[in-house]
Design brief:
Blueprint lengths: L4 E6 L5 H11 L3 E6 L3 H7 L11 H8 L4 E4 L2 H7 L2 E4 L19 H13 L4 E5 L7 H9 L7 E5 L9 H6 L4 E5 L3 H14 L8 E5 H32 L3 H9 L20 H14 L3 H28 L8 E5 L14 H11 L3 E5 L4 H7 L7 E3 L3 H5 L4 E4 L11 H7 L5 E4 L6 H7 L2 E4 L9
Parallel strand pairs: 1-2, 1-4, 2-3, 4-5, 5-6, 7-8, 9-10, 9-12, 10-11, 12-13, 13-14
Helix pairs in contact: 1-3, 9-11, 9-12, 11-12, 12-13
Bound molecules: nicotinamide-adenine-dinucleotide.
The site of nicotinamide-adenine-dinucleotide has 27 residues, from helix 5.
């Protein structure tokens, strides 16, 4: 049966895989192919064990795979056959040369643009799904129109999914944003993409804009979300000094409908592959345009996040008689958030390394992220161990620190955990998810974030 459209996605990562699985699931008349340079990843997408964990992902992949959803390493063939190409390659922070540690590293993205130019034999719509600095579409167009061989229209369609809830976010998005040039060709291309989304997204949720506004909106969106976390985390430090409770403050503040209650949970700090990189990218752009005060303002969001992670380690040290040397500390959770195995920029990486620097012994447990944790900490091998069962992990430890808000930690038998630990036993709740009074009554010395500690001393 011939398909109505051939859709290609370059990049089979956390964004490319789930977004294309959703399009294939909702649009059986389209053929959707996802390609990647990494053959191992593609083999995993074609196997029973997908390369990423995301609730609901397995089901929709298995329903469409080999029917209208294909995973392949044949990038050139994919480009030749496609009418529409989503580019979803990684755009990490640049770690060399100009813009080191700040700007986006666009090498993967630029390679993709050149490869599309090289292989394309018919007109195509190219869609930026990766998060990119403003005006990247212009650079992409310059590469693609270099020899005027075929006609390309470039659109920006940033992805707003959150890991851990990606499938729900893709199925019921708050909004879909499509940026295009306001030319007849640009608008025609935009409408083709609108047509894809209207297969399942209500039309009023699909918003359109100029291409530069669309690119910038994604960076600003992440900057605002991260800014809320850093704001409440900054206040958590003050709460600890003033015997206030950051959860009570957040509740009172968040009930003002002008502020809202989302993203006001104080914690050990934000992680994930996007927030830090996207803010630094915004900061770099502002400095590039001479907007130094604006750059400093946003850079503050990242600085508070670094401060919060270090503060967490210092609080542990202060609580445990000013030394962590020789102490065994169990980290409950390593993923940067619950319901994902992703550990990119997870606060747990920084905290593990700092604990090792303080000469502590670190035991890590996590239901989904242990493989990634082992890769992240491969240079700390003899100081860190990995144990799947949380009870076995905590046994003999001086302290447990909650670093990921996995639901399973809320229902553990903490009497059992307490009885197996070295005394006095400490519990540092870096996500404020446990019942602190109950833990205190069991015998723990409890240190939440931004709330008075409950201690037996
Ligand atoms: N992860 C998220 O939650 C999220 C959310 C929204 C937006 N984004 C953005 O989406 C983009 C992708 O993020 P991700 O988390 O999916 O990254 P990822 O690292 O999980 O996936 C990117 C994939 O692209 C592949 N790749 C790189 N160069 C390639 C090339 N030349 N040809 C083919 N494949 C190539 C890599 O092998 C990798 O599998 C980034 O710009 C990110 O900022 C991510």
């Amino acid at each position: 049966m011939p398909f109505d459209k051939n859709i290609l996605c370059i990049g089979a990562g956390y964004v490319g895989g789930p977004t294309m699985a959703m399009i294939a699931h909702k649009c059986p008349k389209y053929k959707v192919t996802v390609v990647d340079i990494d053959p191992v990843k593609i083999a995993e997408w074609n196997s029973d064990t997908l390369p990423i964990f995301e609730p609901g992902l397995d089901e929709i992949v298995k329903k469409s795979r080999k029917k209208n959803l294909f995973f392949s390493t044949e990038i050139e063939k994919g480009i030749k056959e496609a009418d529409i190409i989503f580019v979803s390659v990684n755009t990490p922070t640049k770690m060399f040369g100009v813009g080191t540690g700040m700007a986006a590293d666009l090498q993967y993205w630029e390679k993709t643009a050149r490869q599309i130019l090289e292989c394309a034999e018919s007109p195509k719509i190219i869609i930026e799904k990766s998060t990119l600095p403003v005006k990247t579409a212009q650079a992409m167009e310059r590469i693609l129109t270099f020899n005027n061989k075929v006609h390309f229209d470039v659109l920006s369609n940033p992805e707003f999914l959150a890991e851990g809830t990606a499938i729900n976010d893709l199925e019921y998005p708050g909004r879909v944003l499509i940026g295009s040039h306001q030319t007849p060709d640009g608008l025609k291309a935009r409408d083709e993409l609108v047509d894809i989304y209207t297969n399942w997204v209500p039309r009023e949720k699909i918003i359109t804009s100029g291409i530069w506004s669309s690119e910038l909106s994604k960076l600003v969106s992440n900057a605002f979300l991260a800014q809320r976390i850093s704001s409440i985390n900054a206040i958590s430090a003050l709460c600890e000094k003033t015997e206030s409770d950051v959860m009570e403050v957040a509740k009172a503040v968040g009930m003002d409908h002008r502020i809202g209650s989302q993203f006001l949970n104080a914690s050990v700090g934000f992680g994930g592959s996007c927030f830090k990189k996207d803010i630094l990218n915004l900061v770099y752009l502002c400095r590039h345009y001479g907007l130094y005060e604006v750059a400093d303002y946003w850079e503050g969001v990242v600085k508070i996040n670094e401060y919060q992670k270090e503060r967490f380690v210092m609080n542990m040290s202060n609580a445990m008689f000013n030394t962590l040397a020789g102490k065994k500390i169990c980290l409950f959770g390593f993923a940067f958030k619950a319901n994902t195995g992703d550990t990119r920029e997870s606060p747990a990486i920084f905290i593990s390394k700092r604990l090792v620097e303080e000469k502590a012994e670190v035991v890590i447990t996590d239901p989904k992220a242990l493989d990634n944790a082992k890769k992240d900490l491969k240079d700390q091998d003899d100081k860190v161990s990995y144990v799947e069962d949380p009870f076995a992990a905590a046994s003999g430890c001086h302290a447990v620190a909650i670093l990921t808000e996995w639901d399973l930690y809320k229902t553990l038998d903490f009497h059992k955990i307490y009885s197996s630990m070295t005394k006095p036993a400490f519990l540092f709740d870096g996500r404020n998810i446990l019942n602190h009074q109950t833990l205190f009554e069991i015998g723990f010395n409890v240190y939440p974030v931004g709330k008075p500690a409950l201690t037996h001393f």
